[in-house]
Fold each of these.
Amino acid sequence: MARAIGFVFLTMVYGFLLAPLLYIVFGSFNEATLAFPPRAWSLHSYAAIPTEFLDALLVSLIVAVASTCLATPLGVSAALGVVRGRFAGGDLVNSFLLSPLLFPMLVLGASLYRLYYEADQILGTALSGSLIGLILGHTSFCIPYVARSLMPVLMQMPASLEEAAYDLGADRWFTFTRVTLPLIRTGLVGGVAFAFLTSFDNFPMSLFLAEGENATLPVVMFQFIEFDLTPVILSMSTLVILGSIAAMFVVEKAVGMAALLGLPEH
Amino acid sequence: MTVTYTRWGLLVIPAMLALGVLFVAPQLFFLAQSLHPSLGAARVGTGWTFANYAKIFTDSYYFDTLLRTVWLSALATLWCLFLGYPLAYFLARTRSRARGLLTLLVLAPLLITVVVRSLGWIILLSDNGPVNFALLTIGITDAPVRFIYNQFGVIVGLVHAFLPMMVVILLGVIRRIDASLEDAAADLGAGRIQTFAHVVIPLSLPGIAAGCILIFGVMGSTYTTTAMLGGGKIVTTPIQIAQEFQMTLNYPVAAALSVVIAATTFGLAFIGLKVSRAKYLDTAL
């Protein structure tokens, strides 16, 4: 009896988790209407994806790649410094490095939006509404994602391996590229993947920083849903879902989603 | 040659500088703004005042919204716990070969932008969506039921958005409970439900509390889900912050609201994270 109730309950929870995503995919093949039941099946809403979505997709990809590229060396270096360096206040530095992850993204975006405006007035920069400003904003939360994924891997790796390389005459760079990097590869792949996806998915920060032609895909989709809810949004969403699932399988193969989220393996 | 450890510490400097400029500086700027008087649309005075904070906590327009934010977050957190705990327990203890896949199915929504996830609920629950179609066909109602653009819709969206995170936290908590304790209870004649109620739940209470504090804190700063499923009808403090920026342009009040929300989320998340020892957190909603 308990088993049966448990089974029904779990099925319902899985249904709840997956229903909205499955229904988007289902609805994307529905011709011309969002209403249920569908009137006719077709790929029409895929052919009709407006170019503004594709432009925004390109912006999103550029921003995600650029902010991940900026954040990766900073995050790797910070993780090495925190784990390998033994200095007073190391824990404090660690907490500081990870603190953007605890911070409301909306506030981060709003405050940067205002700061960019002031900087433009006082220093004569052109950050407001710029692609650079958007990329820098995303970099701020990509750094902790990269650093956090690397730290556990670095902690498990004995420093004696690096010492051995030094003893055998390797210099710092050689040791880093030939010893450290290969050993921390899994953490690095996970961190980079997570930073990329978090940037790609971000809405609350981009809401403030991504304007006009620099609007990212989530921003354009959000506006589209608000003003003009038509089936083409479902085909674009389906593509986003499929892309995200593909990325998840890459992460799963490389490091394991569970490990990336800090879950201990059995 | 021995490695000089102290110099490794210098490697944290570039990231610290970057975060100093991109993360700390805007917050300090916001903090300063929140202490300046507002001189009307988009104009900020130079004097110093606590008036903006006083306004938030005395003006019912702001304070009621703050209370609503707390209420919605609390409600949605409890639903996450109710749905997430059995699921996490199942994933922690099952010996099914499909465990990996079933875990992945729970985590999958995390990687999909919340704009798309909320859209799914909008079309599922809309007046001419499948849920209302079913209700009308069976004859439970004569007119479509309003599920979205109200409190119900926002709660559904919030629970859906945060359930995976709750499961991740609870999984970590339950996995640290020694399964042999449950076997012992069973050997002593306790049924499944008894074991669950008298062994598993008491042992995971500290983790449950930490997880709830964490989720509650992060939920309170959520913008996207509330904006999409509340449709402008349900106003929480994050929504109000965006409104102050986009419409009223009262920057000092917007900054003060941001400071209140950020300090609360940051504080609660910090405590929750420390106590639950969870590693994953998503404030990007």
Note: Chain A touches chain B through 98 residues (CB under 8 Å).
Amino acid sequence: MSTLRTVLRDARLVAGRDLRIEARSRVVVDQVLPFAVLVLVLFGFALDADHSTLRTFAPGLFWVTVLLSALLAIQRSASLDSADGTGTSLRMSGLSPVARYLGRTTAVFVQLLVLEALLVGGLVVLYGVSVEEWFLLVVAGVAAGVAVAAAGTLYGALASGLRARETLLPILVLPVLAPVLIGATRAFDDALGVAAVDGWAWTGLLAVAALVLTVVGASAHGALVED
Amino acid sequence: MAEEPMSPAPLPEGTASDTTGSRGSRLLGVLALVGLAVLGVLAFVLTDPDVRIHPSTGAEFGQFDAVRMLYVHVPLAVMTYLAYGLCAVASLGVLIRRTPWWDVTAHAAAEVGTVFCGLVLVTGSIWGRPVWNTWWEWGDVRLMTTLVLFLMFAGYLALRRTTGDPRAVSRRAAVVALVAVLDLPLVNRSVEWWENRTLHQQSTLGDLKIEDLTLFTLMLGFLVLGMVLAWLLLHRFRVGWLERAALDHSVAAAIVERRGETPDDELRRAVGDPSPGESS
């Protein structure tokens, strides 16, 4: 029990550190969020600014935008430990790999939540969608956010330190997140009233995916940070 | 099980170990080639097309000649499972035992498995065009999970091709492989778990709904493509092993060359080289 408390305390420390760095450097706010809005706008241009088309495809466009923007946030998160010997210092600090993984995942998850909130606003303003089930939207967004953060943190650590990490990360993580994209899109189809599907069933699948990815990530992270 | 070697021996030039062939593997290769020829004749010439008569209308229906593709497609899919399963076991070995033997095995299995998985998608698509009336069906869960599996291992192979500390790359690749094979049960069980979201039929092998030459040809397909898989794995493993030996050899040669540049005899003795007077 005390071990679990230590892990959670250490995870909170790591998450706090990552979020403080973000608050001071403002990379996500200044670069990732504008990028996400830009992608939404580009989809609008590509689909000829037709409101009914945009409304129909809004859930899929939303999650593709989240995944593309998440790649930038994950790469940013992974780079924090590779600069100035920070990774070595963390290894020598006695923090367990599980705590480090959970902490970083939490920090990425918080950033993704901000990103999702902004993009929902973008959907309403730019695409003219209306939210029919707020509760489903929030729960599905949280479950998918955890899944993306869990997989992203694992694969971010995996690609870090390698020469081709910028191109390698998308190739590695996007296929893993393909089922999350499908589930989250279906859940949002229901929440936004775009299609008659059982959004809660898909949200349940998202929760299972989030749990599995978090457990796998926490288990495998130790083998990666030994390098 | 025999103890796996800790590392490849230095490359002995001009000896039998600088080739990937051996008497056994050549025999296996010849058998696989002959088997492929026999399988081709049986599957594409001698077996009957799938033609059935509708009981009430009397109209012909079925898969017709497209069914012939299944004699290759189904065994290819099973061999893909085997290759990726082997990759998962070897990846666990990489993380636990940390020896090159497991690493080279995992790499060989992933590479050959990805070739087979690609062929599964291609042969399935060729079969699907006349039977489903489309090259690709986005709503089919098995198709989607197989594509995701293929893409995850494409990422694995991309990771393998990056330069860096080989031990770090092999550990990271092992993690990628272990996550990727979580998709295998989804691919395999998808036709039962999501039977309303797939055009794939459920397995007819277990309850032996097929018989005679059809069953024989399908079983021959398993045997022959199993031999092809074994032959490819064997050679890919030996290529990987020789690559490692060559790398170790070049590193050792570079160290010796660097030591030769050191003018101080004391330093050379300190690192274990014989002094110039002692060397022959």
Note: Chain B has a mean pLDDT of 85.
